[in-house]
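Weekly structure sync, notes
Attendees: PL (lead), two postdocs, one rotation student
Agenda item 3: pending single-chain targets
PL asked that the sequence for the first pending target be pasted directly into the notes so everyone works from the same version. It is reproduced below exactly as submitted, 196 residues in total.
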Amino acid sequence: MATTDETIYALAVTQHGVVTRSQARTAGLSEYQVRNRVQDQDWSKMGPGAFLVRAAASETDPNLTPLMAGCLILGGLASHRSAAWLWGVVTEPGLGPDITVSRQRYHRRTGVNVYSTTQMELAGRTIMRGIPTTGIERTLIDMGTQIQSDQLSDLVGRAVELGLTNHLRLKRAGQAHSQRGRAGVSRFRQVLDEAA
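Predicted structure, written out during the meeting:
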């Protein structure tokens, strides 16, 4: 039978080196034991209620760790450029994790680009590389708020070439989001119209 530390280590490996306080407590650690692991520098604090388990972190891409921590702390989804990177349509993750949360959960976080939405049900939640992420269509719509039309057109083309989506799914996403006034939709729909 695995020890508490082995259980937490195994969980942290699946979460890019990150574990939450509630996960550690559920696994059987007391608050005192959590503090001891931080004091002994086996763990380091990544934000309110989230810790980096150093031994587990050595086995992951360092760009994924702060992104996962942000999603766990905020209860949100990797979005915008972070999501586009996870989907493989851009090659760099950008500066700071991009995370979308429901409007009720919005809090500013130092070093994290936090976006709020009233349309979480349209986010197309999926898991990419172990991280909760916006669906590809929503990711492309969100990118429409950050890049020019020609760049967005390239990303849409790349997503279709990679088989991540198709023109029908993109068109439906544009319609669904435009009914709710989502930022980035007008540029996204313009790109789709030009491609058609």
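Discussion points:
- The first strand starts at residue 18 and ends at 20.
- The first helix runs from residue 4 to 14.
Action: rotation student to compare against the earlier draft before next sync.
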